[in-house]
Amino acid sequence: MSFSLASFEPRPSEWFTDNVTYEGPGSADFTSPIGSAIGPFTASFDQRGEQVVRAVCEGISCDPEYDGPTMMFLAGSKVQVQGNQKSWGFGGLDNPCSGLQFETPEGTFSATCVSLIGFNAQIIVARTEDVKPMVLRFHLTEGKFETKNSNAPKFFVLPLLNCVAERGNTLLGSHPLRIYPTPAVPETLPDKEKFMAQLTANKRNAVVAFLLKGRICFIEALPDYEERKSLLENGAQRLITAVLVGELAGEPVNTLSEFRSWFPTEVLSALGFASGVDVGCPWVEVRDEYGALILRLHGKPWLTLYDDGDVSLEAMDAAPNSGIGEFLTRYLECSPEKRAYLEAAMNHARIGSLGSMTRLYDNLDHLIRALECLCRAHGFMQIDLLPKLSSSVQDQVKLLLAKGVGGLQSLIAAAQQAQSLDDARLLATIQSRVANAGGTEQKFGLSVVALLEKFGLGDAAIIDAHFIANPRPDGVRDWASVVTSYRGATIHEGYMDFGKKHDAADVIRICRHLKDVLTRLIFRDIGYGGTYESVLRGSYGPQPLDWVQASTPAKHLRFS
To answer: Which residues touch 208 (CB under 8 Å, ≥6 apart)?
Structure first.
C-alpha cells in the first residue's frame, strides 16, 4: 500500500451537538388546582443558549369535581357556585407548575424547577372541527435529560459560549471526547514517513489545558470555530465556540445544583479575563468512559454578550509556567474565598477594557471597583500615615502637630473665657483633627499605592516624578491624588463632565494604565508568574510581570 499523508489528517468527531431537541409524550403537573396537562412535549436548547419548551395540551387530568375549562385550570381559577350556576374567575397564570416529564426514544426529560409562562388558545371558534389544541409554553431553571446508558459517569463537558481563548497547549494521546481525535501512526512505518505522519496527525492538538483538583481538563474549539468567531466579531451576540472537558472522581452530578455544588464556575470568569470576552455555559453533559452521553443537565444558563475586550494572555504566552492553562491552574489552586474576590476584580477589570461597548466613565468606574475589591481583600481601605514616613520625618511631623494642638488649645481657652461657646466647640473639633492628622486615612489613592507596594509594583513613584517635572493642568501633584479624584467623580458624582471639568484624553490615559496595573496585580495575587499581554506595550509582545522597573521611563506607562 502506498504511503499517503491524507490518511493521517485529523477528522472532526461527531459526539458533540450544539443544538439539542427532545420530543415525546408526557405531562406537566400543577398544584392549585392539583392536576396535570397531558400531551406531546418538545424541548429545544440551541447554540445561542436559548431554550424553547412547549406542549400541546390534549387533555387535563385533575379532580373530577373540577370541571372547568382548560384555560381556567391553567389560570388557577377557583370554582364559584351560585345555585345551579358555576363560574371561574380569571386573574392570570396562578396555577404553579411543580414539574414536567416526558419520554423520548433515547431517554427521559424532566424538570423540577419550571414555570408556565404562557399559552396559545382559541377564544371563539366558528366550527367545532376548527378547534385546535392549546399550546403551553414553559421556562425551566433546572431540568435534565437522562439517557438509557447505565454506565458510571467518567467525564463532564461544558459547552462554552463566546470562548475565544487562544489555545497554546498541546494535548497528546487518545481521549474519547476530543473534537479532533489524533489518528494513530503505525510504529512499523519507516522513520522519515513516520515523522511526517506524526506531524500531520498531531496538527490539531492545540488546546487550553489546566488542572482541576489534580486532574487534567482541556478546552478545545469546535471544527467551525473560525466561522463562529467571525460571526461574533460581526454582530452575533453569543455562540457555542468550544467545549471544556474534565474527569470526574465520584463528585455528585445527578442535577445541575449538585454539579454546581463542587464545580468552580468562577473559572469561566477567569477564562473571560484572560481572553477579554465574557464566557458562558448553556448546559452540562455527563458522559461515560467511552464518551457516550449519560445525562445532560439544563437550567438557567449564563447568557453572555460578545464584547471584545483586552486580551491578557495569548497562545504566544504559553511558555513553561506561562499561558492561559497555567493561569487557570494557579487560580483554581486558590481558596474559595480568594477566588471569590478575584472573580469580582477580574470581571470589573474585563469590563473596564477601553474600546468595549461600555462608556468611558463606566470603564473607569469598573476599574476603580476592581481596585477596591483588591484593596479591601488585602486590608488597605485605611492607611496609617505616620508609620509610612521615615523616622526622622515622623519626629518632625509629631513636633509640628504638637505645636498646632497647643496653639489651638490657647484659642479654645480664650473663646471659652469670652463665652464664645460656638467658637470653642468648633475649635475643639479642629484641634482633634490636627491631633489625629497623622493617624488613619481613607484616601483611596493611598490605599492603591500601598497595594502596589505590597506586590512590588513601582508605578506610583515613576508617575509622581513625571508630575513633578511636568505639572498637571489641574494642579494635582501625585498619582494617588489623581486616582482619588477620579474615584470621587465616578463613585460620588456618578459621571465625568468632559465639557467643563475632565479631560477625556487624561481619563483614557489613566484607564489604560489602571487596566495594566490591575492585570499585573491579579496575576501576582493568584501566583501566576508567566508573561502577559500588556495594554501599555501592545506592539512589544509578551511581557514579564516585573517589566516596570524604577528606571522605566514614564512614557512607557503612556505618561508623556
So the answer is: 165, 167, 168, 169, 218, 219, 271, 324, 325, 328
Residue 377, pLDDT score: 94
Cα 544–216–158 angle (5° rounding)?
Answer: 100
Separate counts of helices (H) and strands (E) for the chain: 14, 20
Report d(CA 220, CA 233) in Å as an integer.
20
200: helix, strand or coil: helix
| pLDDT single digits (tens) 49-65 | 999 999 999 888 887 77
Q: Which cell goes with 327?
A: 493561569
Cell numbers for 57, please give them.
395540551
**Alpha-carbon separation of residue 558 from 71, 367, 369, 511, 513 (angstroms):** 66, 17, 22, 11, 7
pLDDT digits (tens, 9 = 90+) for 289-320: 999 999 999 988 777 888 888 999 987 665 67
Candidates 375, 420, 304, 338; CA nearest to 518 is 375
Residues 6+ apart with CB under 8 A from 313: 165, 166, 274, 275, 323, 324, 327, 532, 533
Candidates 457, 479, 459, 458; CA nearest to 468 is 479
